[in-house]
Amino acid sequence: MLSELGPPPLWKRPATLATLVRIILEQQVSLASAKATFDRLVLACDGKVTHHAILEMGQQQLAALGFSRQKARYTHTLAQQVDRGNFKIGGLSRKSDEDVRAAITDQLGMGNWTADVFLMMALLRSDLFPTGDLALVKGLEELEGKSYATADSLLARAEHWRPYRSVATRMIWQSYLHKRSKVIP
């Protein structure tokens, strides 16, 4: 795979509220659809997605931009948590993977997948393997011609890639997207 496709893209994003909002939008939808909604949000925020802008907009305006009712609620609640000082995104980079995961999954609508993607893309952590990622699961199954029915079976398979499972994840994503002639927007 490496000789055919080259090194996987880093797909780095800043460790910001905007990145968390974009990851919320990417939950269980196509990346293109999430990006289109995120781009409308950026435009509505005059280029800078902040907790103040989100709070000023409110859930109804977020929904008008294309957020589902649930994702508008998650995003608005996250902005409230940031505004109140209950969730400090800037401090996440100094925390362990486990502490970052706990801080993110404590937020409404954010689970392990959201934490894994943020850890990988925003904090550039090297040893993440987001077992809840459909593209990762399907990509690995396609590469190996084998089914992985449980998170435990995926983690067992990825064990020998430690401490660089994030690199393996990016390589599998790259292969998955290449087979579909897609790129991550």
TrEMBL record:
User: Could you tell me what this protein is called?
Assistant: DNA-3-methyladenine glycosylase II
> InterPro entries, per this entry?
Alkylbase_DNA_Glycosylase/TA, DNA_glycosylase, HhH-GPD_domain
Domain named HhH-GPD is located at: 25-177
The protein's annotated catalytic reaction(s) are: Hydrolysis of alkylated DNA, releasing 3-methyladenine, 3-methylguanine, 7-methylguanine and 7-methyladenine
User: PANTHER family recorded for this chain?
Assistant: DNA-3-METHYLADENINE GLYCOSYLASE (PTHR43003:SF5)
Q: Which organism is it from?
A: Rubripirellula obstinata
Q: Does the keyword Nucleotide-binding apply?
A: no
Q: Name one GO molecular function term.
A: DNA-7-methylguanine glycosylase activity
Enzyme Commission code(s) on record: 3.2.2.21
Q: Which UniProt keywords apply?
A: DNA damage, DNA repair, Glycosidase, Hydrolase
The Gene Ontology CC terms held by the record are: cytoplasm; protein-DNA complex
The biological processes this protein is annotated with in GO are:
base-excision repair, AP site formation; DNA alkylation repair
Keyword Methyltransferase assigned to the entry: answer is no
Q: Per its UniProt record, what SMART domains does this chain match?
A: ENDO3c
